[in-house]
Amino acid sequence: MKILHVMAGGQYGGAETMFVDCLTALNEAGVEQAVVTRPSELRDAVWQKLGLPVRHAAFPMVLGGPTRAAIDGALEDFKPDIAQFWMARAASYACAGPVPNIGWFGGYYDLKYYRNCQYHVGVTYDLARHIVANGGHPDTTAVIHTFADLEPAPPVERAEFDTPEGVPLLLALARLHASKALDILLQALVKIPGAYLWIAGDGPLRGVMASYAERLGVAPRVRFLGWRTDRAALLAAADLCVFPSRIEPFGTVMVEAWAAGVPLIAAAAAGPLAYVRPDVNGLLVAIDDAEGLARAVERCLGDRDLCARLVEGGRTTYRETFTKQVLVRDSLAFYGKVLNGG
User: Fold this and answer.
1) Considering the domain 158-321 in this protein, what is its CATH number?
2) Which pTM does this prediction carry?
3) Which residues, given as ranges, of the chain have pLDDT below 70?
4) Spatial distance between the Cα atoms of 241 and 276, rounded to a whole number of angstroms
5) Domain spanning 2-147+323-339: which superfamily?
């Protein structure tokens, strides 16, 4: 089986991380793959390690002739059985051709960008519902969940980020973007005296968030770590994983917290609302509710039995739905269905 994967993607991000993890898992399962994507030092190192043929392309909104040529060249040289287009930007470059096209949805994208994709994949049940409600067919739409494959790692030393031992440590893994609601998390931190916060991620609002932390008076307890590739070590150092996104179709951060055995607190955006079972595998708070978020953090910090229950529930959810083995199984089953004509 030969799959051509096409993705625009930024330098960093959850979908980009998932893209790399999925292709790595499929490579381990013996699937032959090739890639068309934007250049990225991090991702290019992975493709080289895996031995995957890669073509770089810019994926502009207009004047996309060179990108189209790169995809056509990959189709001609690699001769895949299936082409999979990851997210709307890449899917807009799909064209009716010699192989079936799969369009991948990590968010509530407009199906107009997928007009040349005969098959669709959503990473949640609600995304599959969105696809079908907007013109996709139930028989050609699948749910393939993301996964976390975190190798256990020693915790990052708190001293590395000037954080005292023994204080409660909250961890947020997120792009610094308005949708991630880090402003709400900083407001909540005001109401949790003594707790420290590590924010692992980068993005356009880094300066804004740093200034906001100063204005709120919590800057001495906040550390902006930038983009990190050692999530397992960061999670091992944290007491709680906090996920306050106001817009979140899914959120691989949840799966990473469950896999790492760290109690999870999330805002009730679409993804967490669908998969977090309150008091079983995490706590849910209302979107944009700083006081509610602070209360949930304080509740966890003061109740070890609750934390242990959330950790065990999270691990169960992870094992049942979000492992690499489940993703490979479901991906291969869907690819087989596509090759058999749906």
Assistant:
1) 3.40.50.2000
2) 0.84
3) 342
4) 13
5) Glycogen Phosphorylase B; (3.40.50.2000)
